[in-house]
Amino acid sequence: MRAAIFTELNGPMSVEDVTPIDPGPGDVVVRITASGVCHSDLHVIGGALPMPPPCILGHEGTGIVEAVGPEVKGLQVGDRVIGTFIPACGVCWHCLRDESHLCDNTYAVMGSPRATRGDGTPLMTMTGLGTFAEYMTCAEMSLVKIDTDVPDEQLALIGCGVTTGVGAALNTAQVQPGDTVAVIGCGGVGQSVIQGAKIAGASVIIAVDPVALKRDAALGLGATHTVDPNEADAVEQVKALTGGRGVDYAFEVIGMPSTVAQAFDMARSGGAAVAVGVSHFTESITIPSFPLVLSEKRLLGCVYGSAQVRRDFPRLVGFVENGRLDLGNMISRTLPLDDINEAFRAMKDGEVIRSVLV
Ligand code: COD
Ligand code: ZN
To answer: What pTM was estimated for this model as a whole?
Structure first.
């Protein structure tokens, strides 16, 4: 089968013929039908998320079960599935506390080779998935069965960006009707935060992004106002739109310490900044101590939208089916796997909300 392999830091992806491993106990082989291209894949190529090459990237995908290994209990050949980039084993310490987004098996599923390169080199896969491929052999706990007619390219986005973004609003922040929200960074994940805030009934949703195409898309997906951070100070602009007070929730959806600090400054007294983006693993975030304590501002970390994927994937699919979540307008382009490097270029150049490989 063909797969896109990360072979060197900051280098291009190499699309090659590789062999997925035979499914062992608890493993499932999935024929991948669509895979979204997320900035986190680029974070791996750039070294911000440490993951040694060679590795099949891609962590936002959907497909059909092609084969099951021994001991697979919940999936059958022909089932429609979405990959979950954090497994949900259902029985570990965290899963038993409704925290499957912190599942104890998160690193175990990433730690074993899941395919072999033409020269025999074992290949790891991003987050135990590796959706930039025609097939993947992954753990059953990394899959959620879905029964829907939503098209593949839309379903794929639920595997990462949509669950992360909508979940950040609904689960992590728990935005309430009438709340005010700012979203710094309006790529695929940021647009999903905007849609989540809209579903929650936020009264003001301010989209902050230097790229006009992103701000325009945000208005179409639920933002009530936009801010161009290149025009004037983003914090001052957001405060001006909220009576000088700041927002109830400011989401950072890029992965830079400076914009996390901006999110903290944009939050009102008693409000919260929600860090969705991850900075380079060597970096730290500095926030001022007075507002943290004396203004009771909070800084919340958010991984995978604090989602319980076995509950939330079907819930998000329901929102799509009922017209409350618009995934069609988040997809700027569909491309073949061979065009993976072009998809990354378009993302870097700010030309797309999401590209999907089909
Ligand atoms: N102010 C406002 N917006 C900015 C600024 C700025 N100073 N600089 C860039 N932006 C905008 C860009 O124009 C772009 O629109 C947006 O920020 C980023 O969008 P994308 O499409 O490049 O990125 P996404 O949405 O695919 O991913 C964002 C993440 C935050 C998820 C990602 O970058 C990240 O931090 N990943 C690591 C965290 C992680 O692993 N998450 C789970 C898996 S995704
Ligand atoms: Zn992602």
So the answer is: 0.97
